[in-house]
Design a protein that fits this description.
Layout: H1 2-33, H2 43-54, E1 63-64, H3 74-84, H4 96-108, H5 119-128, H6 135-151, H7 154-164, E2 166-168, E3 171-172, H8 174-182, H9 191-199, H10 214-230, H11 233-238
Parallel strand pairs: 1-3
Antiparallel strand pairs: 2-3
Length: 242
């Protein structure tokens, strides 16, 4: 009996290890492939779609239209950098200072958790992982982020991020968001419109680009000030992100 349990446990461990290695292989292949081909969908899009179906909402469609960086207004890239990760051009995937500040804040305010994810980390999570908070997911996110930073350029990371970011109910990617909220392609987004889209990113289900609250308007104005302080379009050209 005891030998049988040991043999069964050993069998499950072997298959678990094989499964993990296969998953790592798939992720590694994904990093290589998506360094040059468009991303058809993300893990978050799949999660949202299945969640809607399981809840009985068959009208929900996770929609995204891939566009290259040349087809995205430079204001949009600058807006998300200004809003989410101003050290993006210079770090290797992690903002250590921001992580330390967030850790200290969360120790003091357990009910108001603050994140410190860079655009690179958000891209890794949105593309390959599930939503939610756990040490396992954060560990996987860190490994995927490092892999992306090694293989991809900063311009590529920003391109993928802008194409898979969630901007509203079923709205993924800047092209779909621009068409839905402003009825024009992402290439024609103005500075103010880009800042408005970036303003909803912390919680695109709660914050609405097509019905912005007072808080969203305030955040939009803050993002616009940050964009000007960074140097506008010259910032994007200087860091070869346009």
């Amino acid at each position: 009996m005891k030998k049988g349990r040991i043999a069964l446990l050993s069998f499950f461990k072997r298959w678990l290890l094989r499964g993990l290695l296969a998953l790592v292989g798939i992720w590694f292949a994904g990093i290589i492939l998506f360094s040059f081909i468009p991303v058809p969908f993300s893990a978050v899009m799949v999660e949202r779609q299945f969640s809607a179906w399981f809840s009985g909402d068959f009208s929900y469609v996770a929609h995204s239209d891939w566009v290259s960086m040349d087809e995205i207004s430079p204001w949009m890239g600058l807006a998300v950098i200004a809003a989410e990760d101003q050290k993006f051009p210079d770090h290797w995937g992690f903002d250590i200072v921001a992580i330390e500040k967030a850790f200290a804040h969360n120790e003091r305010h357990e009910n108001r958790v603050r994140g410190a994810s860079t655009l690179s980390q958000q891209t890794a999570k949105n593309l390959f992982l599930w939503d939610g908070r756990s040490y396992v997911r954060k560990g996987l996110e860190a490994g995927l982020t490092l892999g992306m930073e090694v293989v991809w350029t900063k311009r590529r990371i920003l391109t993928v991020y802008l194409n898979i970011a969630e901007f509203g109910e079923g709205v993924f990617g800047v092209e779909a968001a621009s068409q839905r909220y402003f009825h024009k392609p992402a290439s024609r987004l103005t500075m103010s419109e880009a800042a408005l889209l970036a303003a909803v990113l912390p919680n695109p289900i709660r914050f609405k680009a097509n019905a912005p609250s007072g808080y969203v308007h305030q955040r939009q104005q803050w993002i616009l000030r940050q964009m000007r302080q960074l140097g506008g379009e010259s910032f994007m050209a200087q860091h070869e992100l346009k």
